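User: Please predict the structure of the protein below. I'd like the answer in structure-token form so I can feed it into my own downstream comparison script.

Assistant: Understood. Taking the following sequence of 287 residues as input:
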Amino acid sequence: MADAKSEKPSKPGQKLDLASVGGLVVAIGGVLAGLILDGGKAQELVQKNAAIIVFGGTIGAVMLTNSMAVLGRAVRRIGSIFFERNHSPEAAIEEILRYATLARKQGIVSLEQQAASAHDPFLRKALNLAVDGIDMSQIRSIMELEITLLEQDSESEAKVFEAAGGYAPTVGIVGAVMGLMQVMKNLANIDEVGRGIASAFVATVYGLISANFFFLPAANKLRARTKDVIQIREVMLEGVLAIVEGLNPKLIRTRLDAYIVQPAAKNAKNAAAREAQPASRTAPAEG
């Protein structure tokens, strides 16, 4: 068995989120398939002017709503919509247990070098505070503040996409109205009127598709990503506090496993409650 001091946690990478990519492909593919089955052509949805109106207007409205700092962070988070971090609470627990084993053998001061090599900045900071002898209550207070700030920043980034999802359909209607205004200038040519009306409503389609197939789902995906990160950071914090407390690694595992078991137990409890509810309504009255 390798010495705990020589073991280094593997750096968490990223992997393609098949749910995000597949969902976008299925949604757009379904719309195009329905259009083609109705006798239409995919080229009918390609309108440069409509795209300029809808996306330009939506971006402008979002810029007016948010600060540039929040917008910059939101743009940088686009990649996390399609790629998920290849790290889990289970991996965090195993990493914590390696530190706990070393601290139990050689003392908590021996974690100083290990803390410097920790890939997660949150875990690195928590370990450094522990090595420096900071009180447990102070460590919890400092690190919980970081979790709260992360949650607030992530929510503001998600709201950027949520705001875009609210503006895009309305701007699409504006584009349709502008297109119809141009159609009204050519009422003498009925063929041109028909084609013009069809083209005018492409802006509405752009607004609805971008809002419901990307902007609003992206906001919810970012919230889900944040929830996963917070769960892992809570595991890390509780693990470091347990190390400071001097608990046995087996006891630490038992404590941290609750972060994995609790969601499953909660879902099972809710399912049992739903199954019991109809039975209680239909049960005949006694006596």
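That's the full token string. The chain has one domain: 47-254.
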